[in-house]
Amino acid sequence: xxxxxxxxxxxxxxxxxxxxxxxxxxxxxxxxxxxxxxxxxxxxxxxxxxxxxxxxxxxxxxxxxxxxxxxxxxxxxxxxxxxxxxxxxxxxxxxxxxxxxxxxxxxxxxxxxxxxxxxxxxxxxxxxxxxxxxxxxxxxxxxxxxxxxxxxxxxxxxxxxxxxxxxxxxxxxx
Length: 174
What we know:
Elements: H1 2-25, H2 31-42, H3 46-51, H4 55-60, H5 65-85, H6 91-110, H7 117-129, H8 145-163
Helix pairs in contact: 1-2, 1-5, 2-6, 2-7, 5-6, 5-8, 6-7, 6-8
């Protein structure tokens, strides 16, 4: 648990005000707004560290890559899901939006495409086309189980890419 405590302490010390603002903002609005607020928070956690090479500081601690990935996700999701419990938004759909947004921000920043703009474009396009047949596959619209499956696949892919440092075939160092 010390690894989680180290990441928790670091994030609250450096990014505490972002947690508070996104906590409040996540209580209002619809699905697209919540995805945007989640993007604002998640893009400033691990993806920001990847962009600024601050992840090297975390990796110099006795932390594994998979721990950093999961602990940042758990911390950010915890803040947002706590906020969702105080509003009337569907809690299950909130749970499924978060891994989707986190996965696209991590993948985008890992492949040096930016931690905010490209994920924002993906979320916006997903939202715009969710009123078409794409809505049955959309992780934001979640009109069928396919949206949840796409979310899970993207999250697992992001986990594997980051945990293995892009060398998926070589396995994860547990």
